[in-house]
Write a structure and sequence with these properties.
The chain is of the alpha/beta class and 258 residues long. It has nine helices and eight strands. The strands form two sheets. A six-stranded parallel sheet has the order 1-2-3-4-5-6, covered by helices on one side. A two-stranded parallel ribbon has the order 7-8. The protein starts with a strand and ends with a helix. Pathway: Cofactor biosynthesis; tetrahydrofolate biosynthesis; 7,8-dihydrofolate from 2-amino-4-hydroxy-6-hydroxymethyl-7,8-dihydropteridine diphosphate and 4-aminobenzoate: step 1/2. Residues 1-250 form the Pterin-binding domain.
Length: 258
Amino acid sequence: MGIINITPDSFYAGSRKMDVSSALQQAEKMLNEGAAMLDIGAYSSRPGADDNSEQEETDRLLPVVEAIAKAQPDAILSIDTFRSNVAEAAIAAGAHIINDISGGQLDGNMFAMVARLQVPYILMHMKGTPQTMNQLAKYDDIFIEVLDYFAERTYQLTRLGVHDVIIDPGFGFAKMPGQSYALMNRLQGLAMLQLPILVGVSRKRMVYSVTGGTAEEALNATTALNTIALMKGAGILRVHDVKEAVEAVKIYTAAVGN
């Protein structure tokens, strides 16, 4: 899953594509490099990011979604938003999947909208909002809390008739680096939910807090951590650097034989 951010303040500058032309170029590049899908977002969810309005998010997002859907009609497009109105408009504009960092917690209409549209839904674990989540990174047992969260939220979705669900542990969201690694260490335990697992660690602080440097210098370490995620059961990697992620998947597949 290749990341395209239509934002001026996403934590990795290389992902920022603020106009339709540059977003189209990035989409073509990622698809040519082997991306199975593209994740397009117009609201920065980095810790402490500005809280832009629903209208601003919509105005940024829809022209890009429409343009990519037209230029790349076979591409699978995911929309990174926690707002049901934005998600529904993006689906109407040509997107296929909703990627909700809040797991329906920040918009009470999200689950009902997903049920009505019957589109795939990515359910992420987070506490609070991007503005407050770092203050809420407190856990007795992070794996058990994340597992219980997914069990509860997927039960709610199932009761509404939503069955096409992907889970994302939300590395870096209301989680300090050490907590994220503790969760990664037990990632395979989420397999008991029998749902596809998406992992997004690309160039995050949990990576360069260990190796040193910045997000711009974290590609090699990201590839290493992506490989570990694959070994522990990840089925989808959400990445800024598609070529390197595809190579990691190929090497992993050759090594394990499936």
